[in-house]
Design goal:
Strand content: 5-15%
Number of strands: 8
Distance between the termini: 41 Å
Shape: globular
Largest sheet: 8 strands, mixed
Structural class: alpha/beta
Oligomer: single chain
């Protein structure tokens, strides 16, 4: 038995090294081009890079404020009292107890934004009878990316316990930009501390949705993004969901609705969404992650949203006519058995 275990570990290490040694497109870029590729504000066609982030914050604040006024909310619920931002908000608890629960994690390159600016997606989901939990987390440079993954895992466990208590049919995790890395990494890496476990909810977590996510952190190491993160190349790769797709599939691929583990027909579904006006690198990363998930036997969907940029792809989830707004409830219910 011990010999088989060691052989399995050796094979896993070889597989990870193969991915690590692949010819990476981003390695061919100059420093200037790499910075441009990973600066989402430079790629929008509707607004210039000098105003688009400010406009996004304004729109997100306005739409989130309207959501808070329209949908019942329990705000600033503590999931970890030791963390300055270890709080979350729950919307729609007046819905039927069996309603699905969507957990949402904001972006901002692990160093900007907050949960209070991230409620824009709530009203259409409430209309679709879906409860929403929005997780806050501490930001760099106060904490590192690894710390944030652990924080979000604890928030996800809190949300799963809520869903379990309500009798929910299932939980779907979602994240935008850096939040896409966080929700996929939460399910991909080993749990290290008690109180952060998501494994007890393997029959409850049914899907993951990423909006313009980042799945390989290595290209960021030499860019401005890393000034606050201070990641080494080794740390960046260890925290990259692309590296751990095999682990994700093994742990979650065949779980749920009678699945026995190990990938295949049941279990976790993946929905990878990216904006047409994201940079080529962001689009490539989403495609590569999606293909890697399919290669490991996970089921999923891939969507490029036209006439949409890195910011409007999520802020427009407030609008019923936005394509991801239409597709998201359908995906959630397909994951949860309807």
């Amino acid at each position: 038995m011990e010999k088989e275990r060691k052989e399995e570990e050796r094979k896993k290490k070889e597989e990870e090294e193969e991915v690590e040694e692949e010819d990476c497109v981003w390695k061919k870029f100059s420093h200037e081009e790499l910075e441009r590729q990973y600066s989402p504000s430079r790629w929008s066609r509707r607004l210039g890079e000098d105003v688009i982030i400010e406009r996004h914050v304004e729109e997100a604040r306005g739409r989130s404020g309207e959501a808070m006024g329209r949908v019942g909310r329990r705000g600033d619920l503590v999931y970890d009292s030791s963390l300055p931002r270890g709080k979350l908000d729950v919307y729609g608890e007046d819905l039927d107890g069996a309603s699905p629960v969507l957990v949402y994690v904001h972006g901002g390159y692990w160093q900007e934004l907050n949960k209070d600016l991230s409620a824009y997606l709530v009203p259409p989901l409430y209309q679709a009878s879906i409860v929403v939990v929005i997780i806050g987390y501490d930001l760099a440079p106060l904490v590192g990316v690894k710390d944030i993954v652990q924080e979000v895992r604890k928030g996800v466990a809190w949300a799963c316990e809520l869903a379990k208590g309500r009798g929910s049919v299932g939980v779907v995790l979602s994240g935008w930009s850096a939040g896409g890395q966080l929700v996929t990494q939460v399910l991909s890496e080993e749990e290290e501390r008690s109180g952060e476990e998501v494994n007890p909810y393997r029959d409850l977590i049914r899907g993951v949705v990423t909006f313009s996510g980042i799945f390989d952190l290595r290209p960021l190491v030499t860019t401005y993004v890393n000034d606050a993160l201070k990641l080494t190349s080794e740390e960046a790769w260890a925290l990259s969901p692309l590296r751990s797709v095999g682990k994700l599939a093994k742990r979650w691929g065949g779980v749920g609705r009678g699945g026995g583990g190990g990938g295949g027909g049941g279990g976790l579904q993946i929905f990878v969404i990216v904006a047409e006006e994201d940079s080529p690198e962001f689009i490539r990363q989403s495609k590569e992650y999606y293909q890697a998930c399919l290669g490991e036997g996970l089921r999923g969907e891939f969507l490029v949203v036209g006439k949409t940029d890195h910011f409007s792809i999520v802020c427009d989830l407030f609008l019923p006519t936005h394509l991801p707004t239409e597709r998201l409830p359908k995906f959630i219910y397909s994951c949860c058995g309807d």
